[in-house]
Specification:
By secondary structure, the protein is α+β, with helices and mostly antiparallel strands. It has a single domain (4-42, 67-260, 312-408), classed as 6 Propeller (Neuraminidase). 17% of the residues lie in helices and 43% in strands. It contains four helices and 29 strands. It is globular. It starts with a strand and ends in an 8-residue tail after the last strand.
Length: 410
C-alpha cells in the first residue's frame, strides 16, 4: 500500500504522492509579501545605516525579527485535488486553497501522475488582527475549523463556511484552544486541545495549565471534556467514526517550572565562561594600564549563537540532545527530535489508553485505519495489522496529513 500525504517542514509545505518525488509548494501570496517587504527594506536601508553609524560600537547588532518570514501553519485536504492551508506572512495570517495539486489517472491499473495546468492558489480569508493555526475541513457541511491566535496570547476555535470571508469564534475565554479536528459523521462536532492560562497584574501570561481534550457540539452549544490528566499534556486529538480517540501525550510541566529549570541550566553552563572572562578582563586591564595595549588586538566580532532549541507544540526542545539520546531507538539516521515520553495514544471507548508510538511529534489517521506519524526527522506509515515503514526523511517535520486521491482513479 502506498501512502499519499502532505507535511510541513520549516514552515514550508511538501507533498509526497505514492512513489513520486517530494513536491515543494510555494505560496504566491507569501512570495508577494516577501517581495514587498524586501523592496521596502531597500528603500529605507539608508535610514537604518545612518542610525547604526550614530550608535556606539556593539549596539544595534542584535538580529532583528524577520517580519517578511512566510510560514505554513496548518494543512488539510478538502477533496481529491484540493488542499486547504493556513499561512502566516509577516503581520498577516490567512486561509488559502490549492487546487489541482495531484493530477492522477489510471494507466494499466496503476495510478500515475500526468501533466496538468499549474496549481492554483486562492485566498479565502486574511487578517492582521490574529494568526490562524491548524485547520480542518468538514466535507458534508463545507465548514472550515481552525485555531485563531490573538495578539493577547489567547487562542480560540473558529469556524467559517468555505465560501464565506469571516471567521466566527465558537470558543472563548483566557485559554489556548488549539488543533481542532472534525469528528467524522453528519453532526457538527469538533475535538480540540485546551489549556487555561494565568496572568499577572500587568496582564502578562505567567502560567499555563495542562492541556485537556475537549469535544464541542456546535449544534447543541455544548463542550465536554473527553480526556484529562494533570500529569500530562494531551495534544492534537483526532476521533474516528467509532469513537476511538487518538492523541499525543507528553509529561506536563508548568511555565514556572520550565523557566526555573531553563535559567538554572543556563547559569550552570555559563559559570566557566564567566570565570574565564573575569580573569581575562582583570589581566587585560592590568596590561593596558602599564603598556597601553590590550592582550588581544583582534577586531571585536558580533557574537553568533548556534542554538539547537526549537519550538514544538508550544514547548522548547533541545533537538541536538534529543537526537543523540534517541539514535539507539529506531532508525539511527532519523532519530526523534522530541523526547520518547511524547507518546501516540490510542484510546477505545471505555478502555484504558494504549501507547502505539514513542517520540511522536505529529500524526494523522485515515478513514481505513491507516496511520502516518512523524518523529520530527521522518514520516512513517502503518496499515491496519502491519508494522511501521519509513516513507521519507526530512527535518524538522511539524505536521503530516493523509491525502485521499481515490477520486483520481478512473
Amino acid at each position: 500500500m502506498s501512502f499519499n500525504f502532505a507535511y510541513l517542514s520549516g514552515g514550508r509545505l511538501y507533498l509526497k504522492l505514492g512513489q513520486a518525488n517530494v513536491q515543494t509548494i510555494i505560496s504566491e501570496f507569501g512570495q508577494a509579501v516577501q517581495q514587498r517587504e524586501s523592496q521596502q527594506q531597500q528603500r529605507n536601508g539608508w535610514k537604518q545605516k545612518s542610525v547604526a553609524n550614530l550608535m556606539p560600537a556593539g549596539m544595534g547588532q542584535d538580529r532583528q525579527p524577520d517580519r517578511s518570514k512566510v510560514a505554513v501553519q496548518g494543512v488539510c485536504p478538502t477533496s481529491a485535488d484540493r488542499l486547504l492551508y493556513t499561512l502566516a506572512a509577516g503581520e498577516v495570517g490567512g486561509i488559502f486553497t490549492l487546487e489541482q495539486f495531484a493530477p492522477m489517472v489510471n494507466i494499466g491499473g496503476t495510478a500515475a501522475p500526468v501533466a496538468r495546468p499549474q496549481t492554483k492558489e486562492k485566498r479565502l480569508f486574511h487578517s492582521a488582527d490574529f494568526k490562524v493555526d491548524r485547520v480542518d475541513f468538514h466535507p458534508e457541511y463545507q465548514l472550515i475549523a481552525c485555531a485563531a491566535i490573538g495578539k493577547d496570547g489567547t487562542a480560540n476555535i473558529a469556524t467559517m463556511p468555505v465560501n464565506a470571508v469571516h471567521l466566527s469564534q465558537v470558543t472563548e475565554g483566557d485559554s489556548l484552544d488549539l488543533a481542532p479536528k472534525w469528528i467524522p459523521g453528519f453532526r457538527r462536532a469538533i475535538v480540540f486541545q485546551s489549556a487555561g492560562i494565568g496572568r499577572d497584574g500587568a496582564g502578562y501570561i505567567i502560567e499555563q495549565k495542562h492541556s485537556t481534550i475537549e469535544q464541542l457540539d456546535i449544534d447543541r452549544q455544548e463542550v465536554i471534556t473527553l480526556a484529562s490528566d494533570p500529569k500530562y499534556d494531551l495534544l492534537s486529538p483526532q476521533m474516528t467514526a467509532d469513537g476511538t480517540l487518538y492523541y499525543i501525550r507528553r509529561p506536563y510541566s508548568s511555565l514556572r517550572q520550565r523557566a526555573r529549570f531553563s535559567q538554572l541550566l543556563k547559569d550552570a553552563l555559563s559559570i566557566p565562561a564567566r570565570l574565564c572572562t573575569a580573569v581575562f578582563e582583570w589581566l587585560n586591564f592590568f596590561t593596558r594600564r602599564h603598556t597601553g595595549k590590550s592582550l588581544l588586538s583582534l577586531p571585536q566580532l558580533p557574537q553568533q549563537t548556534n542554538s539547537q532549541q526549537m519550538l514544538f507544540l508550544g514547548r522548547l526542545v533541545d533537538v541536538g540532545s534529543e537526537m543523540e539520546r534517541n539514535r539507539r531507538f529506531g532508525d539511527a539516521d532519523s532519530p526523534s527530535l522530541v523526547p520518547r515520553s511524547w507518546e501516540l495514544i490510542e484510546q477505545f471507548p471505555h478502555r484504558e489508553p494504549k501507547v502505539i508510538g514513542s517520540g511522536v511529534l505529529a500524526f494523522d489517521i485515515g478513514a481505513e485505519g491507516q496511520i502516518v506519524y512523524s518523529n520530527g526527522s521522518a514520516v512513517y506509515g502503518i496499515i491496519p495489522g502491519g508494522v511501521a515503514q519509513r516513507l521519507i526523511i526530512d527535518r524538522p517535520i511539524e505536521q503530516v496529513v493523509l491525502l485521499d486521491l481515490d477520486n483520481h482513479l478512473n
